[in-house]
Amino acid sequence: MKNPPQAAHRALAENSLLATLPGAEHRRLLAALEPVTLTFGEILYQPGQSIRHVYFPCDSLVSLLTVVDGHKAMEIGLVGREGMLGIPVALGINDSPVRALVQGSGTALRMSAARFRSEYDKHRALYRAVNRSIHERIVQITQTAACNRFHPVDNRLARWLLMTRDRMGTDHFRLTQELLGSMLGVLRGAVTAAAGDLQRRRLISYSRGAIDILDGKGLEAASCRCYRIVSNARPRRAGTGARATANARPLRKLENRAQDDTIHG
Fold first, then answer.
1. Would you state the pLDDT for residue 225?
2. Residue 252 located in a structural domain
3. In this structure, which of 46, 58, 178, 232 has its CB flanked by the most CB atoms within 10 Å?
4. How many CB atoms are closer than 10 A to CB 131?
5. Gap between the Cα atoms of 216 and 232, Å rounded
6. 236: DSSP letter
7. 12: which DSSP letter?
């Protein structure tokens, strides 16, 4: 993990959870955040280990995995620009219950766990925003558990692709069949068959690990109801127009500060 280069700073997207905060609180919190680059395969948390930082993904994607028998892992949640990593800290818990694995490289903003806990306790707007994110995470985890138990692989794959799209903000991403199998808890052959079915229906294009969603509405129709249930749990968040422009100004200041640190550090 490292601070993003200058080009990444310029392109740094804003986290939706942070965008809900009032202007003054938003600016104060951004001043305490550090921009970082998350790289594919990087492990941010391990089960039972202390959480040193909380993360607010901007254009990166992180899987939450439950680990069984010390080595087998299955995905129970996805976190992208809509939320944050390190929710146990808000609940007064210092250790992570899951493995947090970066699945999509990109940028994020991070803060020390101690500073976040202090901010969370003092400021109502942040408290409410994080609590909404906790509720959304509970819905996602419980629905994912039911989905993995009862629904066919092709429905689950469609759901997973849609959730990935929503959290990365793009219809194009790279995922191997082995990785998809691990995320869905199925063998590689089952992923091959499910992806092939979605491709024959011209809902996706899939070649050498590169996936393009060609028909978002069609993919939603192919997904199980779990996708819509999880999506509906996400609160409608402001972040467009004049409000977004106003909140973007302190972010640019943060980017410039980080660039200066990189140049002079």
1. 93
2. yes
3. 58
4. 13
5. 17
6. P
7. P
Edge-to-edge order in the sheet of strand 106-112: 34-38, 106-112, 53-57
CA atoms of 179 and 209, how far apart (whole Å): 10
Rounded CA separation 240/237 (Å) = 9
- The residues, ordered by sequence, that sit 6+ positions from 56 with a Cβ below 8 Å of its Cβ are 15, 17, 18, 33, 83, 84, 85, 108, 109, 110
In a domain, 11, yes or no: yes
According to DSSP H, which parts of the chain are helical? 6-10, 16-19, 23-31, 87-90, 113-122, 124-150, 153-168, 177-184, 188-200, 216-222, 225-232, 241-264
Token pair listed for 104:
């999509």
Q: Which structural domain, as residue segments, surrounds residue 25?
A: 6-126+237-264
Question: Taking the chain (265 residues) in consecutive chunks of 10 residues, what is each chunk's mean pLDDT?
Answer: 45 74 85 92 96 96 87 86 96 96 93 95 93 94 91 94 92 85 85 93 91 96 94 63 39 42 39
Q: Within a domain: residue 182?
A: no
> Residue 60 burial by CB count (10 A; 0-12/13-18/19+): exposed, middle or buried?
buried
Which burial class, exposed, middle or buried, applies to 28 when counting CB atoms under 10 A from its CB (0-12, 13-18, 19+)? middle
Q: Per-residue DSSP letters for 39-78?
A: -TT-EEE-TTSB--EEEEESS-EEEEEEEETTTEEEEEEE
Residue with tokens 């305490």: 32
Predicted TM-score (pTM) of this structure? 0.80
Cα 47 to Cα 147: distance, rounded to the nearest angstrom: 23
The CATH number of the domain holding residue 44 is: 2.60.120.10
d(C-alpha 261, C-alpha 265), whole Å: 5
Tell whether 225 is covered by a domain: no
